[in-house]
């Protein structure tokens, strides 16, 4: 089984590969390949992922019957690609684009295409995982006076002050500059993905449940 997960950027790929290292290894031993890929650098990555991702997914699914494709964009900033301000609007918008593409290509007679196409999102961006892994964040910053000052439910952080801004602000308070590509990967290395999912029940936990279920016997 081949599981292809598209996210917005390379830094997201590295962060997820680090967080899910043990799960990816276990799945590989079960014959399940899970790989993360960034959206093509053809402009705004979120817009590209939302508008072109469903078409790319369909092309893979129609030619690779053993494959599953998932899209995981950021919810923030809103209204890129098409109007959306909530998780429901974002996921439904992507599903609508995929359905329209299936109909345009005359593939409606292949019902398993929709089953093998999954959509999730980060609420409001990938850095929500760093806030959820607060113990690892504190250890990594090693900064006196560090104390979480964000929403207890990290997925309910104010969309105008998304997790990425919170993380960057704490790096600045600790005299450092946040490097998304390097720091996120290191913070999530060794973090318990199940605990992170427990602290992100609305959007991230469904992605975790999906990945854990891949290849499972019915």
Compact description:
This protein is of the alpha/beta class. Helix content is 50%, strand content 10%.
What report would you give on this structure?
- The protein has 218 residues and is of the alpha/beta class.
- Helix 1 packs parallel to helix 9 and helix 3 crosses helix 4.
- The protein is globular and about 60 Å long.
Quaternary form: single chain
Q: In one word, what is the shape?
A: globular
The share of residues in helices is 40-55%
Query: What is the H/E order?
Result: EHHEHEHHEHHHHHH
Trace the largest sheet across and list its strands. Answer: 2-1-3-4
Through-space gap between termini: 14 Å
What is the radius of gyration computed over CA atoms, rounded to a whole number of angstroms?
18 Å
Main sheet makeup: 4 strands, parallel
Mean pLDDT rating: 95
Portion in beta strands: 5-15%
Helix-and-strand structural type: alpha/beta
Q: Please count the beta strands (DSSP E, at least 2 residues each).
A: 4
Sequence stretches where pLDDT stays below 50 over 5 or more residues: none
């Amino acid at each position: 089984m081949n599981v292809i997960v598209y996210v917005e950027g390379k830094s997201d790929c590295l962060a997820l590969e680090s967080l899910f290292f043990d799960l990816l290894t276990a799945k590989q031993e079960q014959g399940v390949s899970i790989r993360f890929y960034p959206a093509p650098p053809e402009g705004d990555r979120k817009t590209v992922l939302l508008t072109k991702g469903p078409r790319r997914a369909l092309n893979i699914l129609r030619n690779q019957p053993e494959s599953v494709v998932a899209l995981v964009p950021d919810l923030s900033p809103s209204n890129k690609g098409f109007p959306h301000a909530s998780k429901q609007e974002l996921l439904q918008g992507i599903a609508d684009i995929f359905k329209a593409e299936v109909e345009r290509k005359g593939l409606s007679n292949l019902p398993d295409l929709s089953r093998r196409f999954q959509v999730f999102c980060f609420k409001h961006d990938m850095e929500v995982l760093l806030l959820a892994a607060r113990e690892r964040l504190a250890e990594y910053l090693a900064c006196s006076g560090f104390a979480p000052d964000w929403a207890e439910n990290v997925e309910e952080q104010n969309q105008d002050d998304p997790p990425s801004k919170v993380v960057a602000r704490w790096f600045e308070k600790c005299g450092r500059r946040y490097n998304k590509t390097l720091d996120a990967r290191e913070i999530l290395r060794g973090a318990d993905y199940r605990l992170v999912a427990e602290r992100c029940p609305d959007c991230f936990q469904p992605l975790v449940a999906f990945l854990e279920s891949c290849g499972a016997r019915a």
